[in-house]
Amino acid sequence: MNNTKISRLRFAHLPTPIETLPRLSDALGGPRLLVKRDDQTGLAFGGNKTRKLEFLVAEARDQGAKTLISGGALQSNHCRQTAAAAARFGFKCILVLSGEKPKQASANLLLDELFGAEIVHLADRTDRDELLQETFDRAAKEGTKPYLVPYGGSNATGALGYAFAMKEVIEQNLHADWIVFATSSGGTHAGLLLGQRVFGYKGKVLGISVDGSEEWLKENVSKLASLASAKLGKHIEFAPEDVSVNASYCSAGYGVLTEREREAIHLFARAEGLLLDPVYTGRAAAGMIDLIRKGFFRKDETVLFLHTGGQPALFAHQYADNL
Questions:
Q1: pLDDT tens digit string along 114-154?
Q2: Parallel, antiparallel, or unpaired for β 32-37 and 18-20?
Q3: 76 labelled catalytic
Q4: Residues sharing a CB contact under 8 Å with residue 145, sequence separation 6 or more, in sequence order
Q5: Which pTM does this prediction carry?
Q6: CB under 8 Å to 270, separation ≥6 — which residues?
Q7: How far is CA 100 from CA 61, 104, 111, 130, 297, in A?
Q8: CA of 177: how far to CAs of 33, 170, 206, 301, in Å?
Q9: Which one-letter DSSP state was computed for residue 242?
Q10: Do the Cβ atoms of 264 and 300 come closer than 8 Å?
């Protein structure tokens, strides 16, 4: 990596700790387990999007933006952290959220409102891209200088957050043979892949898909990592085959709580006093647990589970009622 200047606002609580999970390891009879606590990044209950927003909000500021616009599901962790970042740095925030509007806001949606975000609701996720663009165009016409924060913070700029997170993991000097995490919009995955190459991480990086197909994720993550590499000063061309994905655990659909997620959430809570969320870390942990039981990881290996946050969703009515 050369000395290309990268604009960044440092507000995350870093480095996040790495902790051992001895009781969970014993309960599963599998490999040594560690957890990287990116649920403790500090902004609005933390989560992985905070690392991305350090670069995205800096870019918005550098472009003279006054409004942050983004979108996601009704209980989006990304939107919650985007709204908090907007409040902290003096931006207006508009969020386009898909899902039926509840009678009473709870969990992440409640926090969005507390941070002063303007909420644009729509029922069907399939129309979200169009409404997001319409919202951006309207804000631009009104002169509020909008900056579009992509879904999940997942573009070349946002991916830098996890390229540097990989550097942080290496510097913490707790070697893991595998890093396992939830992958969806691809930015975290792309950043880790880029950081692995640039900073020389020797282990393997495995994303457990929350909703996307293996083919889509391999294509998207490799493209994002390639684009992000240029921002570090030297283009690296990543290919789909460079991306490790397991998409065996997402057939139920996005945000659908199955018995696998329920078991993972209860097991982490009761073995380690550690809370997962029902959409992302719950599904990734469920996949990791199943892979351990199937002998995918050797017993003498060390597996680092990247906890990407999202616990406020535990208090959303549609999940709390089914846990």
A1: 999 999 988 677 778 889 999 999 999 999 999 999 999 99
A2: antiparallel
A3: yes
A4: 64, 65, 66, 67, 139
A5: 0.96
A6: none
A7: 33, 11, 17, 18, 40
A8: 10, 12, 11, 6
A9: G
A10: no
> 272-290 burial, b if ≥16 CB within 10 A, otherwise e?
bebbbbbbbbbbbbbbbbb
What φ, ψ does residue 171 adopt, rounded to 5°?
Answer: -70, -20
In order of 27, 208, 273, the CA distances from 258 in angstroms are 21, 15, 21
What is the reported pLDDT for 318? 85
Say if domain 18-48+154-320 classifies as CATH 3.40.1790.10.
no
Handedness of CA 68, 72, 73, 78 (dihedral sign): negative
- Name the catalytic one among 7, 25, 70, 76: 76
Which residue do the tokens 């709580």 mark? Answer: 257
Q: How far apart are CA 121 and CA 290, in angstroms?
A: 36
Left, alpha or beta for 236 (phi > 0: left; psi -120 to 50: alpha)?
A: beta
Ramachandran area for residue 269 (φ above 0: left; ψ -120 to 50: alpha; else beta): alpha
**Cα pseudo-dihedral 227, 35, 53, 5, rounded to 10:** -60
Q: What is the pLDDT of residues 261-320, one digit of tens each?
A: 999 999 999 999 999 999 999 999 999 999 999 999 999 999 999 999 999 999 998 899
Distance CA 103, CA 121 (A): 13
Q: What is the DSSP string of 255-297?
A: T---HHHHHHHHHHHHHHS----TTTHHHHHHHHHHHHHTT-S
Q: Where are the domains of the chain?
A: 18-48+154-320, 49-153
Count CB atoms within 10 A of the CB of residue 112. Answer: 27
Phi, psi of 9 (to 5 degrees): -100, 120
Buried b / exposed e across 69-97, counting CB within 10 Å, b at 16+? bbbbbbbbbbbbbbbbbbbeeebbbbbbb
Distance from C-alpha of 19 to C-alpha of 319, rounded to nearest angstrom = 27
Rounded-to-integer distance, Cα 191 and Cα 181, Å = 12
Q: What is the dotted CATH code of the domain comprising 49-153? A: 3.40.50.1100
* Mean pLDDT for the stretch of residues 214-243: 97
* Tokens describing residue 240: 């789909």
